[in-house]
Write a structure and sequence with these properties.
The structure is a single chain. By secondary structure, the protein is mostly helical. The protein has one domain. It has 12 helices and 2 strands; from the N terminus they run H-H-H-H-H-H-H-H-E-E-H-H-H-H. A two-stranded antiparallel sheet has the order 1-2. Helix 8 packs across helix 9. The longest helix has 29 residues.
Length: about 230
């Protein structure tokens, strides 16, 4: 539970940030359609993605999985740095670029994280949806996309801005592109396996996923707004 001091600090820095923090539920006027797409995504996960992720998690040593996760985290840094700059945070953008240079060279393409040992701060990932929110588009309808999962209309529009910032998206060779995209998807799903039990026990999996996603997204936006106003 937040203290009154925390609440006053947020409110004084940006009333909109406080409003987003207090928002608990999604604006979901398309719930009927979203539930159908959510059901389709669950079926695809149950029969395809989850079995592959379980197999990957079973046969791949934890140290290798950690390296793969760091590799893809490193690939997200260019987008993070650009969005930090677009949000008016050049110092954070410079720190992110510093991490990119160190981990891409000394860290062998991001498989290792020497930047953290050198004291270069690691910032949260940023995407263009968060940037649009800091620019003023803070209230957006919840939307579930086939295979891509939870989004909002704002975050769906932002895909057009995120794709050009992805190093994977710049790869022309279809085999390499598809292979990296598949590995990234499987790695991400494997890291979500511990949450499966909570979803299985949920009274309504749709509501659980929707509300958890929206609260996490609102927290990210609130964090960005506070940094922007610091």
């Amino acid at each position: 539970m937040r203290s009154s001091a925390d609440t006053n600090d947020i409110a004084s820095s940006d009333p909109d940030a406080e409003a987003i923090y207090e928002q608990k539920w999604a604006r979901d006027p398309w719930e009927g359609l979203n539930r159908k797409i959510h059901g389709f995504n669950n079926a695809a996960d149950r029969w395809v993605l989850r079995p592959v992720a379980v197999g990957y998690d079973t046969i791949t040593p934890a140290s290798v999985q950690a390296g793969v996760s760091r590799f893809f985290a490193n690939l997200r840094i260019p987008a993070t740095a650009l969005n930090q700059a677009l949000q008016g945070r050049p110092k954070h953008a410079a720190q992110s670029l510093g991490r990119l240079v160190v981990n891409s060279t000394v860290g062998i393409g991001g498989l290792f994280d020497p930047a953290s040992h050198l004291g270069i701060a690691k910032r949260n990932d940023e995407d263009f949806g968060q940037t649009l929110a800091t620019w003023g588009w803070r209230d957006s309808r919840y939307l579930v996309l086939p295979l891509l999962g939870p989004r909002t209309v704002r975050d769906t529009v932002a895909i057009a801005g995120d794709h050009p910032m992805s190093p994977i998206g710049q790869i022309d060779d279809n085999g390499t592109y598809n292979g990296l995209l598949l590995l990234q998807t499987v790695d991400g799903r494997a890291r979500m396996l511990p949450l499966d039990k909570f979803r299985q026990d949920a009274f309504d999996d749709y509501l659980l996923v929707r509300d958890a996603w929206v609260q996490r997204r609102n927290h990210q936006i609130r964090h960005d707004l506070r940094l922007h106003n610091d």
